Amino acid sequence: GKWQDSIALQMRVAHQNFVEAVQSLTGTSSEAPHAPARPLAPPLCEEIHGPPSAQWRDRAQQVIADAEKSLWGSEGGKARAWLNARGLTAETIRAARLGYFPVSRSWDPAEWGLTGKDVYMARGILIPCEVYGVTWYLKIRRPLGEPKYTQARGGRPALYWAESLAGQDGVVFCEGE
């Protein structure tokens, strides 16, 4: 058959959950990885591309705060359980500022400093991309359906947690966030 990656194959063959499969393949302990410290310094990507407008970033911060509140509230229980099953600790979830939208939402584009169609976010896990404290995009991991990931209009491309690469001898890129 066809498998997405070695982790998915290990899960299927060994009847393991995601965390167990990763541990089997990497020979690591049951201790889940922790989020790296996030230093504050001007990123190279800001010099090249520039982040979204200040208005977009301000609105994104409000949306992130609302989604975080939903994730840690009673309505976010299933979403937190799903994240934990994927190996994410509460510490990592908080450091990444993950959030949850229990229902899909739309906003007037003028609230974000945009024109045209509404800014839409599907129901699911919010994954904000903040590099050196600046919000670049908002991505949603949907629980069902295709596409699996959607992104809020107006964000800009950036390398997720780029600041965590400083001082590293090597980097492995795996899919996305």
Give a written overview of the molecule:
The chain has 177 residues and is an alpha+beta fold. 32% of the residues lie in helices and 16% in strands. The protein is built from six helices and six strands. The chain has helices at residues 6-14, 18-26, 44-48, 54-72, 77-85, 90-95; strands at residues 99-101, 105-107, 119-121, 124-131, 134-141, 149-151. The strands form two sheets. The chain has a four-stranded antiparallel sheet with strand order 1-4-5-6, with helices on one face. Strands 2-3 form a two-stranded antiparallel ribbon. A hairpin with a 2-residue loop joins strand 4 (124-131) and strand 5. Helix 1 (6-14) packs across helix 2. It is globular, with a radius of gyration of 17 Å.
List the helices and strands and how they pair.
Elements lengths: L5 H9 L3 H9 L17 H5 L5 H19 L4 H9 L4 H6 L3 E3 L3 E3 L11 E3 L2 E8 L2 E8 L7 E3 L26
Antiparallel strand pairs: 1-4, 2-3, 4-5, 5-6
Helix pairs in contact: 1-2
Question: What descriptors fit this protein?
Answer:
177 residues; globular; two-stranded antiparallel sheet; alpha+beta
Structural class: alpha+beta
Radius of gyration: 17 Å
Residue-averaged pLDDT:
86
**Are there runs of 5+ residues with pLDDT below 50, and where?**
none
Counted beta strands: 6
Give the overall shape, derived from the CA principal axes: globular
User: Main sheet?
Assistant: 4 strands, antiparallel
What is the overall number of helices? 6
**Strand line-up of the largest beta sheet:** 1-4-5-6
Strand content: 15-25%
Distance between the termini: 26 Å
Helix content: 25-40%
In N-to-C order, the SSE pattern is HHHHHHEEEEEE
